TrEMBL record:
Keywords, alphabetical: Signal
A Pfam family the protein falls into: DUF6130
Domain of life: Bacteria
Residues of the signal peptide: 1-20
Name assigned to this protein: DUF4399 domain-containing protein
Family annotation (InterPro entries): DUF6130 (IPR046133)
Amino acid sequence: MNAALHVVAALAVSTMFAAAAVAQSARDVRGPSPLVAIDKQAPARLIVDPPLAEQLAQGLVFIQYTTENLRIVPVFGKGALDVSPRIGHVHITVDDAPWHFVDASGETVIVVGLPPGPHKVLFELADPMHRVIDSKTISFEIPARSPAPPKQ
């Protein structure tokens, strides 16, 4: 009986340590509180995933992105440079167009209407004065779609 009690106790302790090792705090997931200034902020970084495969197969481009050490918000201008934690937005250029659009939502970027073939989307992480901090280019191919059978 004593040996069985030791085994159960060892299992209980092991389970507690394993659960603590994988537990995450809100700060681990969301980053630092936006309500507290940060001294000596780490450099901002842009993370961009490839387009979601299921939508890409339908000719739709859904690209998820996130940032580290910078919050995406729709605030612009010189006064916003002193905000801590740091804030910014993303410039998005499709296929080397001479123009870009701005995303300040932090949500999935959706591009539709591209013809089949190779494409690329440039993401530029920018400060409130539109100066680029980091950038990533995502290359992908829109597959040719087979024509729908004629309706009878």
